Amino acid sequence: MAGSDCTLSWQQQVRADLVRVLSQMQSTISFQLSGALQNDLSAVFSGHEQLGVLLLLCLGLNVAEIYKADVALPRGVLVVQTGQSVLGVLSSVRGWARGSEAQVAMGFLINTFALCLPSLLGVVSPGLVAMDYVQNAISVYLFQYATTSRELLATTDFGTSPVVFCILALALSSYFHSTTMLSKRLGESVIHLYSYVFRAWHMLLIDWLLRSITASSAGAPQQLRVLLPLLLVVAVDELRLARVGTLRDVRSYTVFRVAGELQRLGMLSSDSTGCLAGALLVLCTRSVLSVLRLRARVLDSLSQIVFVSCVNVLVQDVTTDSQDYEPEIRILRSSFLFVLAHGLQTLFV
To answer: Is the dihedral angle over the CA atoms 158, 160, 164, 169 positive or is it negative?
Structure first.
């Protein structure tokens, strides 16, 4: 991003940048916390039972809203978790990663077919899908799809290195600006139906590219292994994928995956306090440079990566600390953490 408004002090710029980072990372943070809650729910309920309980809770919130109760906060969390449970049910049914190649392919198609569900919901109730909390839930839904589908990339041999193919596909997507040119030939209804498939497959392309970069640099010096994933975020920034309407979640997913890779390499602190302090330091540095009207896109990306890794560490700490508790207590604890984080994001953003 180019320089910011010169009338802002650095303290005001820090707050503005913090709000923007939290807004950009909302779906990523929701995905991390909903994953922890999903694990705790799975210890008590089967996939179908989880889905039934969550749907009943959503129905209860609708009834409470009739009586003028403020249900915005729990509803945002429940809708996210319901989407997670839908994909969880599909995962438990297919067992696609453990079957033959034909079963793997069929499972992948079923998983991909589930991406049309948000589009069908948009046909039934466009106003509902346009709401912020539903859009956040759909983003988390796409994150979960990409995370489960990446197992296929780990077990399938694609032959030659996919790096060139991935870069070409991402560059073409940036050039065509998704719906602007393609919709003239395919029609708005077709584009709308497959828009989430289009977005999720680009997340898989990012995952595929990161996996290839990691594998190819396995024997390289540590500094190069750290630099290459960071360059991937910079490349996505330069392609302006975040400005393409149907690809707005791709950059967030890239930051999430790169943060995980840097944590795996031991380059980010495993202590939540140290991780948060590092994120705030990078953010403050980026804000000061913005006040001085200097470009700081790399620092902006780095602050987001460290923030995401901080949430990762917090979730891991809570999960580890909760192992001695009963599953029901773990569910309550994870739910409280999710609601708290969602409320803080809503407060700031």
So the answer is: negative
Residue 168 to residue 166: CA distance in whole angstroms: 5
What does the pLDDT look like over 245-279, one tens digit per residue?
556 788 888 888 888 888 887 776 666 677 777 77
Q: What pTM was computed for the model?
A: 0.81
Q: Which of 1, 35, 103 is nearest to 318 (CA)?
A: 35
Q: What is d(CA 106, CA 84) in angstroms, rounded to the nearest whole number?
A: 20
Residues 107-156: pLDDT tens digits? 777 778 888 888 888 778 888 888 888 888 988 999 988 888 877 666 66
Query: What gap in Å lies between CA 81 and CA 60, rounded to an integer?
Result: 15
Residue ranges of domains in the chain: 10-236+249-348
The answer to whether 114 touches 90, Cβ cutoff 8 Å, is yes
Nearest CA-CA partner of 38 in 1, 91, 93: 91
Output b/e per residue, 324-349; b: 16+ Cβ within 10 A. Answer: eeeeeebbebbbebbbebbeebeeee
Token digits of residue 269: 């602190």
User: Environment class of residue 37 by beta-carbon count within 10 Å: exposed (0-12), middle (13-18) or buried (19+)?
Assistant: buried
Which token pair is 21?
């980072």
Question: In sequence order, what are the residues at sequence separation of 6 or more whose Cβ sits closer than 8 angstroms to the Cβ of residue 247?
Answer: 173, 174, 178, 198, 199, 202, 241
CA distances from 249 to 135, 212, 246 (A): 11, 21, 8
- Greatest alpha-carbon span in the chain: 62
Cα(40)–Cα(335) distance, integer angstroms: 10
Instruction: Please list, residue by residue across 243-274, b when 16 or more beta carbons sit within 10 angstroms of its beta carbon and e when fewer do.
Output: ebebbbbbbbbbbbbbbbbbbeeeebbeebee
- Torsion over CA of 79, 35, 266 and 25, rounded to 10 degrees? 0
Evaluate whether 171 touches 239 at the Cβ level (below 8 Å).
yes
